[in-house]
Write a structure and sequence with these properties.
Elements (H helix, E strand, L loop, with lengths): L6 H27 L13 E2 L5 E2 L9 E2 L7 E7 L9 E9 L19 E5 L6 E4 L2 E2 L5 E6 L5 E9 L8 E9 L13 E4 L2 E6 L5 E2 L4 E8 L17 E6 L4 E5 L5 H7 L11 E5 L5 E11 L2 E12 L1
Parallel strand pairs: 14-20
Antiparallel strand pairs: 1-2, 3-17, 4-5, 5-9, 6-7, 6-10, 8-9, 10-11, 12-13, 13-15, 15-18, 16-17, 16-19, 19-20
Length: 313
C-alpha cells in the first residue's frame, strides 16, 4: 500500500525546516557582529593599497595579543645554514605549515598592509627589534629573509599572516638562538627618544595606565631643526607601532587610525582636521611594563623610536 501524504504533517515539517533555517541565518549575522580577537572585527573591508593590491583584512586592532592564551593553527619553523652570530647578516629559511602538517603557499596568503607576511622579531632585553617581510622561496610553503641580530640570546619571532580562505589573522611563535649571554632587561618610563637625529615624542600617555582600557596615543616625529619630519610611506602608512610585554608573551601590532578602515573600527570621525601627529589606539590585558617601538621611514631607511610605559591592573 502506498503512503498517503498528510497535509498537516507536511506543514509541520515545512515550519520546522524554516525555523532551523532562521536559526542558522540569525546565528550567521550574530557571528558577523561579534568582535574577533584575531583580526579586529569581522567587517572585512576589501580596499586597494598603494601598490594596487586588494587587501582582505586591513583593520586596526588596538589590543595586545597574549599568545599564551590565544592559540592559532599554524607553525613557523626557522633554519639557517650556519649558527646565527651577533653583528653578522644571515639568510634564514622559514617553513610555514598548518598544525596538521599542510604547507601554506604564497598564493594562500592575503595582502595586509602591503605585505603577505609580517615578522616581529625581538631579543630578550627588548632592545633589538626587527620588522621583516619574508619572500617566497618557491610554492611549497618556504620563505626566506635576511636577519642581522645585534645582541645575544633567544630571539622571539612572531609570524603574522592572514590566510585568504579564513580572512582571519593567524600567528605563529618561534625562537632563533644567538649564542652568548643576553643583556639584562631594564625599563624606565619614557615618552621621548632620539634615534638617528629624529626626535620621537609620544603624547596622550597618562601617568597611570589601566588594563582593558583604550588609550589614544599621539606620535610626533621632528627632525634636528624641530620641524615635523617628512615621513615616507612604509607598509601603506606614515608610521607603525609595535608593543611587547616584559615576558614576550605576545605583542600589539598597531596602525595609524587615520585610514578609512581603521577610523570605522575605532569609531572616529573622518572629517577631523589633520595635524602633525600619528595616532594609535593602545589596549593591553595584563599589568606590567611594555616597550613600544614606533617605525617610520626617512630617505628609504627605517628608523625606530622607542618608549617604555607601565600598566596597572
Amino acid at each position: 500500500m502506498s503512503a498517503v501524504n498528510n497535509p498537516f504533517t507536511s506543514k509541520k515539517r515545512w515550519i520546522s525546516s524554516a525555523a532551523i533555517s532562521m536559526v542558522f541565518f540569525a546565528a550567521y549575522f550574530v557571528l558577523r557582529a561579534l568582535p574577533d580577537a584575531q583580526c579586529g572585527f569581522l567587517l572585512y573591508e576589501e580596499i586597494v593599497n598603494e601598490n594596487g593590491e586588494v587587501e582582505l583584512c586591513a583593520t586596526n586592532h588596538a589590543g595586545f595579543l597574549d599568545l599564551t592564551r590565544l592559540k592559532y593553527p599554524i607553525e613557523a619553523t626557522l633554519e639557517t645554514e650556519e649558527p646565527l652570530q651577533s653583528g653578522r647578516l644571515s639568510n634564514v629559511s622559514l617553513e610555514l605549515k598548518t598544525k596538521g602538517g599542510m604547507t601554506i603557499a604564497p598564493h594562500e596568503l592575503a595582502v595586509t598592509h602591503t605585505e603577505k607576511m609580517h615578522l616581529m622579531v625581538i631579543d630578550p632585553s627588548l632592545e633589538d627589534y626587527h620588522h621583516l617581510h619574508p619572500e617566497p622561496d618557491g610554492i611549497d610553503g618556504r620563505y626566506r629573509f635576511d636577519f642581522e641580530p645585534k645582541r645575544a640570546g633567544d630571539y622571539t619571532v612572531f609570524t603574522e599572516i592572514v590566510p585568504v580562505r579564513s580572512r582571519r589573522q593567524a600567528i605563529a611563535v618561534s625562537q632563533m638562538e644567538v649564542p652568548g649571554a643576553p643583556d639584562e632587561l631594564r625599563f624606565k618610563r619614557s615618552t621621548k627618544s632620539v634615534v638617528d637625529g629624529m626626535h620621537f615624542e609620544l603624547k596622550g600617555v597618562p601617568e597611570t595606565l589601566r588594563t582593558g582600557r583604550d588609550y589614544r596615543l599621539e606620535l610626533y616625529v621632528k627632525d634636528g631643526t624641530g620641524a615635523p619630519a617628512e615621513l615616507e610611506l612604509v607598509m601603506g602608512a606614515k608610521g607603525h607601532m609595535v608593543a611587547f610585554d616584559a615576558g614576550r608573551k605576545g605583542f600589539a601590532h598597531m596602525h595609524p587610525i587615520d585610514t578609512i578602515v581603521a577610523a570605522r573600527t575605532a569609531g572616529l570621525s573622518l572629517g577631523a582636521e589633520p595635524d602633525d601627529s600619528l595616532d594609535f589606539m593602545f589596549n593591553v590585558p595584563n599589568p606590567g611594563w611594555y616597550r613600544l617601538f614606533a617605525q617610520i621611514q626617512i630617505n628609504g631607511e627605517a628608523v625606530f623610536g622607542r618608549f617604555d610605559v607601565k600598566v596597572e591592573g
